[in-house]
Design goal:
Elements: H1 2-25, E1 39-41, H2 48-65, E2 68-74, H3 82-92, E3 102-108, E4 113-119, H4 122-125, H5 128-143, H6 147-162, H7 170-173, H8 183-213, H9 259-290
Parallel strand pairs: 1-2, 2-3
Antiparallel strand pairs: 3-4
Length: about 290
């Protein structure tokens, strides 16, 4: 019986060893470890605090716009391209169908590439042109090793896009929506406008006061001498008419009393131009800040 038992155990052990080897050869997909997890940092690019910050922002996007967002990092693409690795991972999470709405950004340290995959309604929001624009925004930060800042920028653009209507026209599909102004932005613009108006008002006020306190010299206009006036009376026997002709002496002096009003008008025009140029400048600065 002992010999029979040993004879039967050897094939069984060999079969188990073979199955174990086969399982080890099969690549294990990266699965979610926690419910509602959206950050899969297998390349260890983020600190724990950064992961928590990114996850909090994604939770807000999910709760507000019913759109999922994922950030995946890896230093081993398992021999796949960035596109194949991202799509397979997204599919393993249950995405890749019309009912699962979400977008995933892969930071592939193995292939040194970035890839973005979308699913469900996110495909309509994130057109190829828009994904390319997002990539151009985050590329410089990724090149500098600023992975957290690049991920924050990615999520900011995701929130901006999903908070706007689905693009219909070709111009909308090939551009990013404009950032919506917050209450702080309105207060900042109102404060800047009020400051400019106050400065221009002061300049205009002092300019007008100066024009009145330091008037230009004007030569007074002389009244014509009565002796230089000829009165001519003409009468006709058949017609009764009375004609009076007055010849006034020419005066070479010119009235220059309009100089003050001309100065005021010029000051107003100059300062209006200054207000317009200042407004354009601050508008450009604010747009640049909002697009960072």
């Amino acid at each position: 019986m002992r010999n029979l038992k040993c004879t039967l155990s050897h094939p069984l052990m060999g079969l188990m060893s073979l199955l174990l080897c086969l399982l080890m050869l099969i690549p294990m997909p990266l699965k979610a470890a926690l419910p509602n997890q959206s950050i899969y940092d297998y390349a260890a690019l983020f600190t724990d605090e950064e992961v928590q910050s990114l996850q909090t922002q994604i939770n807000e996007i999910r709760a507000t716009y019913h759109m999922d967002a994922f950030i995946l990092t890896t230093d081993d693409a398992q021999g796949k391209t960035s596109m194949a690795f991202a799509d397979d991972f997204f599919f393993d999470l249950g995405y890749g169908n019309a009912k699962a709405n979400g977008i995933l950004m892969l930071i592939d340290m193995d292939n040194r590439q970035v890839w973005m995959s979308s699913s469900g309604s996110a495909i309509s929001y994130f057109t190829d042109a828009r994904i390319q624009l997002i990539y151009e925004k985050v590329r410089s930060k990724l090149s500098d090793g600023e992975y957290y800042d690049a991920s924050k920028l990615f999520l900011n653009k995701v929130e901006l896009i999903v908070s706007s209507p689905i693009p219909v026209s070709s111009s909308e599909q090939t551009s990013l929506p404009k950032a919506k102004l917050t209450a702080t932005d309105y207060l900042m613009r109102g404060g800047i406008s009020a400051l400019i108006a106050f400065i221009v008002s002061l300049i205009t006020y002092f300019s007008i006061c100066h024009s009145y306190t330091h008037p230009k010299f004007t030569q007074p206009v002389t009244t014509p001498d009565r002796s230089s006036v000829n009165y001519t009376e003409k009468q006709d026997r058949f017609m009764h008419s009375h004609t009076t002709k007055i010849r006034l002496q020419k005066n070479d002096t010119h009235d220059s009393g309009g100089g003050g009003s001309s100065t005021i008008a010029l000051v107003v025009v100059v300062h209006l131009v200054a207000v317009v140029e200042a407004s354009r400048f601050f508008k450009a600065v604010l747009q640049k800040i909002l697009h960072l």
